[in-house]
Hints:
The chain is α/β, with parallel strands linked by helices. The chain is built from ten helices and 13 strands.
Amino acid sequence: xxxxxxxxxxxxxxxxxxxxxxxxxxxxxxxxxxxxxxxxxxxxxxxxxxxxxxxxxxxxxxxxxxxxxxxxxxxxxxxxxxxxxxxxxxxxxxxxxxxxxxxxxxxxxxxxxxxxxxxxxxxxxxxxxxxxxxxxxxxxxxxxxxxxxxxxxxxxxxxxxxxxxxxxxxxxxxxxxxxxxxxxxxxxxxxxxxxxxxxxxxxxxxxxxxxxxxxxxxxxxxxxxxxxxxxxxxxxxxxxxxxxxxxxxxxxxxxxxxxxxxxxxxxxxxxxxxxxxxxxxx
Length: 282
Ligand SMILES: Nc1ncnc2c1ncn2[C@@H]1O[C@H](COP(=O)(O)OP(=O)(O)OP(=O)(O)O)[C@@H](O)[C@H]1O
């Protein structure tokens, strides 16, 4: 299998309105791939088509090397994890018992429950009844459930949207640990920092179309104005070209011990999104 996801000219219309237009992209094994777009741009629709919850109007999608429609079959379902708006938890059971049920379903040893609860910072809440959890806790147990069987491919729809910064950090660490173990992750977000922190490559989605696709680093570097900002010890700033002329100037500041900080002048992913789509992300 060459790609974990191979989407070709995917289209989805709802009552004649095109929500997704000619969307093509590939996700390689072991990547964290980010789908970035404002509300209503088609992120959830894409995940639903890639996970056999929706049928495309036209185009094709191969996931784990087979047509996406096959993911309904048990043997493929066990290889993926999906988190969308549907949490599918048993609200009268405890956090632990919910995860135990999924362990039985996926043939996972219950020892793994403590591991995933640590990953999502829910160890203390293990015996709490799910109906008594806060929105952020619900989001974390839903993620724990998706991590439980260490799927080959994980789909996450805005995984940290209800989380505070501390728990967001826990989830990022958990996702990076999963990636290191070989899980491929497809996530949607409108948080540019999340994309910068996690994603190997990102696609910008706007009005149902992919407008740009590359690594966050390359996107920023391609739009760098080739200058550095040098903050001096007296609080003033100098803009210095990255070439030989700038080297001379920087050398002088450094020789005089006047440099407090130096950074490359590149736009943020958010700036690039606005430049390309003419829209803000959130
Ligand atoms: N079942 C449906 N019936 C009709 N229209 C739909 C349906 N599902 C999605 N849409 C429309 O398709 C477009 C894309 O919706 P989608 O939920 O994929 O966007 P999104 O990028 O995930 O948004 P958000 O960030 O708000 O979750 C929207 O205009 C939405 O109203």
